[in-house]
Design goal:
heterodimer; A: five-stranded mixed β-sheet; 10 strands; B: mainly alpha; two-stranded parallel sheet; two-stranded antiparallel sheet; 16 helices; binds copper (II) ion
């Protein structure tokens, strides 16, 4: 490109500009379409439903009473994990799950905003008091993961670390036979 | 020579002074939570420091830079005396008063809620009211920029508004509307609870309100940087602006599409459904457009400068660029950091990829690259470029200026690249310390140490910057002449009305905000089952 005078130069400049603008628009449209495709085709959409819950009554009744927290094997072979976050710990502090199984995590906060992040995976969700967060998970390999609270929740935030323990599918099924709620707290 | 030099200098000096203080806090935070510091620290101090660092860097510093630069632009681009100087001072003092009012409770540990507030955590009411005063002070500036342009238009009917002023006013309108989200959160939700009039709050709704401000505020921070790209860089390196029209289109696009995308900050939140998350994700892709256009136009303008200096060949012209010119250096560093930060941004905007790095150190790395890197480097360039016109004295030495810019560039990379890495490993952010003795965390110790070293390089660079500006006041007097902006290659004689006024764009900005936010906000606002008890900070 050279610096030109007169109308011819202006036309060339405008044409070059238009070409670049077209390329930019195409790039952006492709990105948006890719995101839409991945979202719909691979079902990686975030939780569609907004569910509320009273954080002051979690311990009294309903889904998140203490005896209902932890992992449970559903009749269809899937697993549901229920957990709550409060300043400055998770209950249960160690979540026990089977490998190679579809798992639904249902969690909420009893006080302020917290977050659950399972290291080494893309399990990552916010816990906002008043709302229930739901996240689908699946772990392929056995092993332990750290599960820090990823959102600032006041002065003890840095001490709020949970754990996820992934065990063998059969071992989990054997433990779940009694129908109770499982966790690996104290193990 | 600018007339209202004191006004502009006051804005810049307060901005850079608080920036220096916040840099100290940032470096200290990096140090105490790295393995370099092995003593036991009180985590509470860390969160106080983090709140102060974020509040100053997020609200006070960029707002004052945009305002000071805006007043200088109004005066020198419109070539008319600034209208409303007294109001401008009133706005300035409101910001000073608001900042002090906000920082006292933070220092006392009564408002460690970080600059993003996090209700139902509730700190001292003085903190929030101080932040509101800062915003109100900046709204006076918005009004003044609009009034000054109106006065100019009356005297110059039909003439194209100079690009610098066109962009400046677009930036001020963007800010005025962007700030409304956080203002609603503070005035309707948080302050009544902080004052004890109410005891419950809807944390989910508050997060949606804040997301309204939280994304577009970045584009407000960015405006002075983009204005400098278009109107300072080509002139300062001896070139021409490739296209005045493209500049106008880029600023209009920022005005329209920067706003209705903030829900991408709540991809992992339970209070917004998947539909609006998707819409905001798609709109976020759009906001890359003005940046892509700008990269093209500025690279072309830089190439023109090189060719005017005798540069030849498809790539040979790059060698002909004035690499010892600080503005050349600054824009190069800014573009490189913008490239890395922008690439990270594309990852954040997709909620499939976002899940991997949401709320990890990756995010800290991303926005420090964009704000601390791409944006602040151009704030330095603006100051260096304006200073001789503000002080009536030449800068003390370009060697020192170049060293300062190099240090900042290197410091930014050393700080943010390891953050991206540990973020991918899942290291959460906003933590006062990590237990490096844990075998699952100990491999990250080296990266955190690197970041801490980078923070000290940044601190040294920032102090050098302040030193250069301060000593410039003592140089022998030298007339810098009138303050000029870049001339376009093809002189602008007429501009279509749409590229010379804001009415339809402001209407579009508000309309898009309403379509992208009204439903999520209303559905939360009409419910009564989602308010939760406030948790007061520092009261335990
Ligand atoms: Cu927490």
């Amino acid at each position: 490109m050279t610096v030109q005078d007169g109308n011819h130069g202006a036309e060339v400049a405008a044409r070059t500009e238009r070409r670049w603008a077209t390329v930019s628009v195409i790039v952006i449209v492709v990105l948006a379409v890719l995101a839409a495709f991945a979202g719909i085709h691979q079902v990686t959409m975030p939780q569609p439903r907004v569910e509320t819950i009273d954080p002051t009554r979690l311990h009294l009744s309903g889904e998140f009473v203490e005896s209902n927290l932890g992992s449970v094997l559903e009749p269809n072979g899937a697993v549901t994990v229920r957990a709550i976050g409060q300043q400055y710990s998770f209950t249960p502090a160690c979540i026990l799950v089977p490998a190679q199984t579809p798992i639904t995590l249902r969690a909420t906060s009893a006080d302020v905003v917290h977050g659950i992040l399972v290291q080494g995976t893309n399990v990552n969700t916010m816990l906002v008091p008043g709302y229930v967060s739901e996240q689908l998970m699946r772990f392929e390999k056995l092993g332990d993961h750290l599960m820090p609270c990823q959102e600032f929740c006041s002065f003890g935030h840095e001490g709020m670390w949970g754990k996820v323990k992934v065990i063998d599918k059969e071992e989990f099924a054997a433990k779940a036979k009694s129908g109770g709620r499982l966790s690996c707290v104290g193990e | 020579m600018l007339v209202n030099r004191k006004l502009v200098l006051a804005h810049f000096w307060v901005a850079f002074a608080v920036f220096g203080l916040a840099l100290f806090l940032g470096a200290w935070q990096m140090f105490v939570r790295s393995p370099l510091y092995t003593w036991i620290s009180n985590p509470e101090w860390y969160y106080r420091s983090l709140t102060a660092h974020g509040t100053v860097m997020g609200y006070v510093f960029p707002t004052l830079v945009a305002m000071g630069f805006g007043y200088a632009i109004s005066e020198s681009a419109l070539k008319q005396p600034l209208v409303g100087v007294r109001w401008a001072w009133a706005g300035f003092w409101l910001i000073v008063a608001g900042s002090v009012m906000a920082m006292v409770p933070v220092a006392l540990g009564r408002a460690s809620v970080l600059y993003t507030f996090y209700p139902p955590l509730i700190g001292s009411a003085f903190y929030y009211i101080g932040v509101v005063l800062v915003v109100v002070g900046s709204w006076i500036w918005v009004a003044l920029m609009s009034i000054n342009l109106r006065v100019w238009r009356r005297e110059h009917p039909g003439e194209p508004v100079p690009l610098a002023m066109f962009a400046n006013v677009a930036g001020s309108y963007l800010w005025a509307w962007t700030a409304v989200g956080a203002a609603l959160e503070l005035l309707l939700q948080i302050i009544p609870v902080a004052l004890g009039w109410r005891t419950t709050i809807d944390a989910g709704l508050a997060r949606v309100f804040f997301s309204w401000t939280l994304h577009a505020i970045v584009y407000f921070w960015l405006m002075p940087t983009y204005i400098a790209y278009y109107t300072i860089v080509p002139r300062a390196i001896g070139g021409r602006l490739y296209s005045d029209t493209m500049g106008r289109i880029a600023f209009i696009l920022f005005l329209v599409v920067a706003m209705p995308i903030g829900i991408h900050h709540t991809f992992a939140d339970p209070q917004v459904g998947a539909g609006f998350k998707f819409i905001h994700s798609a709109f976020t892709a759009l906001v890359a457009l003005p940046t892509l256009l700008t990269v093209f136009t500025i690279c072309a303008s830089v190439e023109i400068a090189a060719r005017l200096r005798g540069g030849r060949g498809a790539f040979g012209w790059i060698m002909a660029l004035p690499w010892d010119n600080p503005i050349m250096l600054a824009v190069t560093f800014s573009f490189v950091l913008l490239g890395f930060g922008g690439a990270g941004g594309l990852i954040n905007m997709s909620y499939q990829l976002d899940a991997t790095i949401h709320n990890t150190q990756w995010i800290t790395g991303h926005f420090h690259l964009i704000f601390g890197g791409a944006i602040v480097i151009m704030y330095f360039a603006i100051a260096y470029d304006l200073w001789p016109h503000l002080t009536g004295r030449a800068l003390p030495g370009l060697k020192l200026v170049r060293a300062q810019l190099w240090l900042w560039f290197v410091g930014m990379i050393v700080t943010t690249f390891p953050w991206h890495w540990v973020g991918i490993l899942g290291m959460p952010r906003r933590m006062a310390y990590y237990d490096y003795s844990d075998p699952a965390i100990s491999p990250q110790a080296f990266s955190v140490t690197l970041s801490a070293i980078g923070a000290f390089v940044l601190l040294i660079s920032g102090l050098l910057f302040l030193y250069i500006l301060a000593t410039a006041h003592r140089q022998p007097a030298a007339d810098a002449g009138a303050y000029r902006f870049s001339a376009p290659v093809h002189p602008v004689r007429t501009v279509p009305l749409a590229l010379n006024s804001y009415a339809i764009w402001v209407a579009l900005m508000i309309g898009l905000t309403v379509t992208n936010y009204a439903y999520p906000i209303l559905t939360l606002a009409v419910r009564s089952d989602n308010s939760v008890p406030a948790v007061y900070v520092g009261a335990q």
